[in-house]
Amino acid sequence: MKLEEHPTAKRYLEKKLEILKAPPPRVLDDDWVKSVILDAGADDVGLASIDSPELAEYRSRILRLYPHTKTIASVVCRMNPENVRSPYRQQYELEYHHMYAEVDHVARRAVVTLNRNGIGAMNTTSSYPMNMEVWPDNGMWWVAHKPVAVAAGMGRMGLHHLVVHPRLGSSIALTSVLIDREVAKYDQPIHFDTCVKCMLCVTSCPVGAFSADGHFNAIACTTHRYRDKYGGFADWVETIISSRSPLSYRKRVSDQETVLMWQSLALGTSYKCTNCMAVCPGGEDIIGPYVDDPKEYRNQIAKTLQERKEIVYVVKGSDAEKHARKRFPHKPVRIVGNGVRAASVSAFLDNLHILFQRGASEGLNACYHFTFRGTENIDATITIRDQTLDVKRGHIGTPDLRIIADSRTWVGFASKEIGPLKAFITGKIRIKGPFSLLRSFAQCFP
Each residue of 108-125: b (16+ CB within 10 Å) or e? Predict the structure, then answer.
């Protein structure tokens, strides 16, 4: 039997003819698309073009995931603010686990309806990326839901680096639906700042990840908040392996922490902190208690979280360690690794902005020329000045220190798999300039 004579193929060809006679519109009605997603259970939805200027740096990655993308729908589901604000783990964990699953279900139901109407669409994951073969590079995230939400008019980024929806605030779960058609009208970014600049996220973060000037210490946040997954989980496994005995392990990890890790593995990943979302009063539906009595709001929510006794996970020598010990002396500090190890020189350079500790760089003003040879031939200029970091490919300007390194050796040296003595004695890493500048450089990336 020829393929076109098979009953399934014949039925497909018949349907194809029907579609050709009355094809779905190439440009979809935006209100209809929104109604499909709202009927699927979303609390709000916005539509952004794949060509939106706000999504320029994310466009290529989205198109790799779904090459037919013309429109991106930002799907918003409301969380229960009282659960999020609770200082008790079982309450905020319950909300997080249910709502991330719910927003994924909403997006999938919407895609089913779109597909049934002859429209190509793909729902994306709201929470944990599966593309871990590129860890720790940001490439594990195919679609950045926060920038999509901002481009689609679903809010603005607050000081806490969460999207603050104008009505629902930051207690929301986000995902995105990729659609293969354009729509008649796209939403635009909103014109006002939805963050009320109350500074509660700044004062309540146990690791000092947020600053009043907008600076975000991403690695401080992820080291603590995501202790039970990503690099934190890898570091925990290494803690088990490197412990000489059960007693040695228990000195490094409490019984409570071990049980919490089991809970993350069995029931859903635990979030060590949700303070930034909990204290945020932004959003029309949320702001009332803060406007009526700011002092009482601070005492009931922010102060409760600030005074809560909880383990704070930090990397030794980081800005987070200094902040936690000074700002929250009643919270036990646990020194851990973040598990972030670059697999290549290119990844090392790309990840420096995430690892940079601007507090540790205070007083350092230096230009570094790196020359990597071997499996990777890369020249780079790294400038640390006035507590800012600048990384560029190629040699630019006059360096204060030159580092010439075998690329594989440098990757091992940076991840502490190769000691400095071996690296320098073998000549695989050489420097021209004061060694103290290399030591100062390392202190900026603990």
Answer: ebbbebbeeeebbbbbbb
